[in-house]
Amino acid sequence: MYICMFKWYEFFFNYFWMFLKEILIISSLCAAVSFRGAFHDQDAYAYNLPDEIVQALRNGDAKSISKYFNSSVELIFSESRGVYGKAQAEQILKTFFSNNAAANGKFNYKYLHGTNKDNAQYHICELHTGKGQYRVYIYMKDQRIYEMRIESDD
Hints:
The longest helix has 45 residues. The protein has a six-stranded mixed beta sheet, covered by helices on one side. The chain folds into two domains: 46 residues; 103 residues, Nuclear Transport Factor 2, Chain: A (Roll), CATH 3.10.450. About 7% of the residues have low confidence. The chain is 47% helix and 33% strand. It is built from four helices and six strands. It is α+β, with helices and mostly antiparallel strands.
C-alpha cells in the first residue's frame, strides 16, 4: 500500500510541476507583451518633432523651421508644389504663415502621429490658423526636413 501511494504522489507531483511550468511560460509571455506595449508608447513619444520645430509652428516662425531644411526641400501646398533651396523654401513658408495669420499671433498646434525607421521620421500635425485648419506632414531624415506638405483640412 505504501508503494502504491508513493506512485500516486509522484504522478501528482509531476503533473503539478508541468502545470506550474505552463503557467510560468504563459505569464512570461503576457509580461513580455505588456512591456513591449509600454516601451512602444515611449518610442512614439521619442519620435515627436524637435521642440524648436514645434515652437516655430506655433509661432509661425519660418526661419526657425528652415534651420532644419535639407539643402533642397519639397514643399507641397494645396495649390502648389515644388522642390526649393533652403532660402526660397523659407520665403514660401513665411508667406504661408503671413497669409494665414492666427488672430492672437499663435497657431494652435496638435501632434498626431510619428514613425521612425532607418533614421527617417514621418510626422503628422494639425495646425489651426486664422483662415482654417491644416494638416502638416513632415518627412525628416537625420534631423533634416526633406518634405513638408501643408493641406487644408476644411
